[in-house]
Every structure is written in C-alpha cells, then in structure tokens.
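Fold this sequence, please.
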Amino acid sequence: MTYDAEGEIGTGKGTISMRALLHLDADAFFASVEQALDPRLRGRPVIVGGSYRGVVSSASYEARKFGVHSAMPIARAEQLCPNAVFLHGQYSQYEEYSDELFSICRQYAPEVEQSSIDEGVLDLTGTERYHRGRYPKIARHIQATVWKQLEITVSEGLATNKTVAKVASDLKKPNGLVAVPRGTEREFLAPLDLKRLPGAGPVLTRKLADYGIRTVGEFAQLPREWVLITLGKGGVGLHQHANGVDERPVRPTRDPQKSMSHQETFDADTIDTVFVLGVACRGVSMLLTKLRAQGRTARTVGLKIRYGDFQESQSTRSLDEPLDIDPPFYRILEELLPTVWQRRVRIRQVAVTLSNFYTASMQLDLFDENKERMARLYRSVDAIRSRYGFDAVGARGVWTNGRPPRT
C-alpha cells in the first residue's frame, strides 16, 4: 500500500481508534530559521553549532547532502562541507519562531502537545467541519500557513495515534505529509527498520538483532510473553506500539496561549507607509477574528518591522480596556508605525502581536450604544468570513496578500 496525503484517517468523536492526530516536525529547524532571517543563506549549506570543539546542533538539507548531521563534531562537519556557513546560533530567535509555530498550531487544533522546541502533536479529531476540509487538506493548510508566516517548512504525519503519526512524519522530509489510513497502522509499520520505532534505542535494537529481529514487523510478531521475559514491562509497551496500538492521549504541555502573532513578508521591499500600515491592520484583523471565535479579548498590541538589511524594530502599546473589535487596534498601529519605523530604509516584513488576553466580557458603558453596535457588526462579519473566506469582508484600506489594491 502507498501512504500519501490522501489517506483516510478516523473521523468523528468516537473511540480512540477514531482519532485524527497530526505529528508536526520543523525541518532542520535552527538552520531553517537562520535562512528565514537572512534569505541570502537559502540554497547554501548552513550549519548551526558551537565552537570548533563543539557539535552540530542543526544542519540545513543542503549541508546534509555532504553527510553532515546533528551531534556530529563541528571539526568533522568542516571536513565534510568546508564551504558551509557556520553559525553559533541565536536561541532567543529560535524560541520566538517556536512560539509563533505553535501559536499557528493552536489556531487549528484545540489540543496541542509540544514535545520539543520544534516538534509536537495536534489532535484534529472532529475539526473537519470547522475547517471545511478533510484532515489531509487541513494538514496541508497548516504547512502553507507556517511557510507564509515564518518561511520555514514542516513535515507531518497523520494517523490515529501518536506512534504512527510520529513515524510517518519522518518519512518524507522536508515539507512532506504522510497519511496512514485507519486500520493499516500495523501494516504501515511492519517493513520499517526497528530503529524508526520511537523508544527503540541502540541497546534494544542490538539485543533484538542478536535474535535476528531487525524490522518493526518482526518485533510485532513476537509472543508477548517472550517480550516480557526478555525486555521487561517497558518492552511490552513498545511491542504494543509496534503492532500499531497506542492509546496515549494528546496532553497540552503549555499554559493557555498568552499571545498570538501574524507576519507578512512583502513581494518586494517597500517605503510605502500606507501600504505597510494596511498590511499590519489586516494582520491584526485576522488575529481578532480568531480571538472572537475563542471568546476572548486582548488589551495589548505589538508591531514589529524587519528592514531590507534584516535589522528589526518593534514596540507595543495597551488599550485602556480589553476589546475584540478592530478599529481601536487600527488606531494604535497607526500611532506605533512612526515610532517603530525611524530609519530611511525599505521594509521587507511586518508582524503584529496581540497579548494580555481576557475572557470576552467587553465593558460596555451604560449609554455606549456604539460599542454594542460594533460588537454585533463584527459577529456578522465573522459569520460572513467563516462562510466565504476572510477576504470576503475587509476594512477600507486593509489590503490583502502583501499587495496594494488594483486601481
């Protein structure tokens, strides 16, 4: 059987076997972030690590073609790929990209379990109707959104449980999607090398190799009693996973989302302030649409720009009260832009952030009918956008796709 993006995954809100879990893994994360921050590095071998006596933390796929991989001594990496760009790394930037990556994930799934800075599991079960598409389509849309907002790629595995989804996400890197249909989990795992099974470390694989067991399928066929005697209780759990059975739930590993952000990279660097402001306002409008759907309000908005020479400038400002309607945030962005954009240099990217969230309970003044009308207006706007797409309704001057409107 061929496993591809068209596989049918479990649907509905039934039992564990009806789940749809998406394992997401950012490709060569640290190196990819460096290439996103400086597009001049795209297409070049990039190696992120410490000093000459250190080890490789991340290698771009261009560097991997020369045999470079994570945990390899930097000295060896230089021998294999002397023309690579070697960087010490910017961990604060990686954390920022990670936060934005999982912020995107939480916009698609109610439960997201982050297992590392660049890897996690999304429980998509029951979200097909909300996202108006089948699970593989949702997964592809997540990849497209991550690329559009962060300019990095992610590989994904779609299955009914964590083990199979994780294994699947590793098979078509970079930017791949492998979907494993419900009921074929054991068949999917069987031909794979035992080393691909999460939890099957070097000691266990060497021990099983002594018995002639080298694939997941061969391990799965062993009698449970033999596994218990030979490998102990831990081996029994791994044996169950080898048979395609894994009932572990997705456990959100972080506090409720404290901020959300949106960024746009322009097709060409610009000095058009009206254009930049319009793109920023559209971005904050997209965030507020999602915030209203979650029944929350925000009090603080941030604006960040990235110049054509890749330097950045940013600032934040708070409202007097938390709100979920667009115009007050537009006004703050209009005030922030001249304080942030103080160099006579073209802009290549703009990003907006909302934070300081509250449960939606907008404080309506006793006689402030205008706020109440605005709240009703935006509920109607959200309903239209939900049916026809975000750009079906837009505020005057809020442009789409990083381009000015046609005249």
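The chain is about 40% helix and 20% strand. The first strand starts at residue 21 and ends at 26.
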